[in-house]
Amino acid sequence: MIQDRSSEIDQLRARVATVADYLHVDAKRAEVAALEAKAAEPDFWDDQSVAQTVMARAADLRDEIAAYESVIAGLEDAEAANELAVSENDEDMAAEVERVLADLGSRFDTLEVSSWFTGEFDSGDAIVTIIPGAGGLEAQDWAEMLLRMLTKFAESRRWKVDLHDAPAGVELGIDRAVFTVHGRNAFGMLQSEAGVHRLVRISPTDEKKRRQTTFAKVEVLPVLPDEIEVDIRDEDLKVDVFRSSGPGGQSVNTTDSAVRITHIPTGTVVTCQNEKSQLKNRDAAMKILRARLYELEKAKRQAEIEELRGEKVDIAFGSQIRSYVLYPYQMVKDHRSEIETGNIDAVLDGDIERFVVGYHRWRVGAQQGAAVGAGT
After folding, report:
1. Are 188 and 119 in contact (CB under 8 A)?
2. What is 124-376's CATH topology?
3. What whole-number distance in Å separates Cα of residue 254 and Cα of residue 177?
4. Strand order in 237-242's β-sheet?
5. Are 98 and 16 within 8 A, CB to CB?
6. In angstroms, what is the C-alpha Rg of the chain?
7. Pairing assessment for the beta strands 258-263 and 268-272 based on DSSP bridges
8. Residues 144-203: pLDDT tens digits?
9. Is the bond into 132 cis (omega within 30 degrees of 0)?
């Protein structure tokens, strides 16, 4: 007897309809039309940077619309094939229905993830900073482990990673790390990693082999589009150049190509030394500085709003978002989504998709729950 898959198809159709509300497909079609009209203007390519941004945005929108339309078409095909399989008692057709539904499920998961990122900068690139917490050598070692984990994850998604600054620690690890991740939804996705990461293990530097808890903080900022204005005056900047150095103090360049920019009014310091060109390091540093100053201003405005509301603002170092326990047992647990695994080696090797997606599924669910609660 051939299994009727109508209920599965109906359930998937309902899920697609829900996601469509978040995707705003009609609005995106209208935006594509507006961007195409802009691209057709005679002076469109006069400003290459703006033109490329417009074209990239249009391409991303077309991809999202195409993915949605592909799933809708796939549902129609599955429904027709299922009806034929049941009416004709056709096992080959039934097997095809099963294959189509599995493929649709995978494509829908990708579509659902895209629907979660509706923020102003979610679809763009991300600037990631890793800062060792208290713990000296242990924290610097943990920071380097996190750098490897996050860059491996980015590479698994075929995102490009530009490492700007990762000076070696005194004996092991790194003093800090700053890198940019280029890829669709990079900023939206990597917000799951922003916060304090906790490591519990036997200390590799302790002769008595005692257990130690170490912390490191991950900061995730958007790469701001050129049209976003951030007021940075030349007279507020102090620019220092120096010779780049690699792990262990090894020289990676024989010229003063590394750049350190200090924004005097806020005390914000950005260092870039990965490029061999001083100009490229300066450009990268300025992009990071713009993002940090934008974030500082946004945080200031939010603090003012909270003060007017009479609410207490948490200004602590950060909440612990995830724990990585290597001893006395092995487990990685996200304290927000409650997702956990015992395969810590895979996680530290960049296999964090379940935590990233799980966090965002938890976040969207919490937002939907809050919206429902506010409406009652």
Report:
1. yes
2. Alpha-Beta Plaits (3.30.70)
3. 22
4. 237-242, 258-263, 268-272
5. no
6. 24
7. antiparallel
8. 999 999 999 999 999 999 999 999 887 889 999 999 999 988 999 999 999 999 999 998
9. no
